[in-house]
Specification:
Homodimer. This protein is 47% helix and 17% strand. It has 2 domains: 148 residues, NAD(P)-binding Rossmann-like Domain (Rossmann fold, 3-Layer(aba) Sandwich), CATH 3.40.50.720; 165 residues, Lactate dehydrogenase/glycoside hydrolase, family 4, C-terminal (L-2-Hydroxyisocaproate Dehydrogenase, Chain A, domain 2). Strands 3-2-1-4-5-6 form a 6-stranded parallel sheet, sandwiched between helices. The protein has a 3-stranded antiparallel sheet with strand order 9-10-11. Strands 7-8 form a two-stranded antiparallel sheet. The chain is α/β, with parallel strands linked by helices and 344 residues long.
Amino acid sequence: MFGAKTTSLLLGKMNVFSCFHPMTRQLQLRRGFRVAVIGAAGGIGQPLSLLLMKDQRIKELRLHDVQNVKGVAADLSHVSSPVSVQAMQGPDQIEKAVECCDVVVITAGLARKPGMTREQLFEVNATIVCGAVSAIAKKSPEAMIVIVTNPVNSIVPMAAEVLKRNNTYDPKRLFGVTTLDCVRAERFIGEFLNISPTMVKIPVIGGHAGTTILPIMSQCKPPMKAGRECIASIIKRVQTGGEEIIQAKEGKGSATLSMAFSANRFVDVLFRGLSGEKTPIEPAYVESSVTDACFFATPLSFGPKGIATNHGLPRLDKSEEDAMKVAVKELQRSIQLGVDFVKK
């Protein structure tokens, strides 16, 4: 009916106008992100990568680790998901893995073993994360950097120093994931109140280790109507949740599945912000001026450039104020540990 030239012209117009079709635009927004998982062959990296494969807002998922990551990528490539998955293996491939990414999630490093202090863990994991952050600074300076590797309280300030040295530091784009503390608080309170954890809203502030983890029970919704001892026991369980899992796994593992679940929840909120959506409030360990600790987790909202609003401290009762003073002193020591590592 039409000549070859006319047909070509019509198809060209259709392609141009399809860019403006609402459905096309919606798909572009939903499937536009490049994400890298550093440490993808590990205990957290594997389940996190599987969860990310389900997210159709992701265009490309890049998996990096020092070994065994090709098998993980091959396995995930059999999943019926439109997400493209690629494997990059070894130190010489890390820059390629993070290049031009929107979000980089760092899970690489050694898991804490029974009897190991977080300072000992830091000595092992600091060098690993330094290498990853240096690669991000060089190849993807605008990326959102999501740090899962422990000890978060020291690793995140260390990462900030590395970025500063590379003149690429933006405090709105660097996050330590503390969502697992929220997830635990929601679960344990839900069990006590005999309701779904999804119905529990509780701010958890501070850091991501021991007494630096501060579930603000006075602001729990629905309200926690329980005695002091009961509330204290729930707080203690949230603060020592990592040890509980290590013991349950008989020293052969740590919190991997629950951490992957939590990291995925945090990344989901980041995606919403990057897409220009109104985001749920989610805490993270970030540079902060709300206390005397220059890094501190508080409730945050997110936007296209990272942190949109730091909502600061929730209202605290007297016991929570006292607990925060203890947490701040401990955080200051942990922060200095991370800063000194880079300076030395």
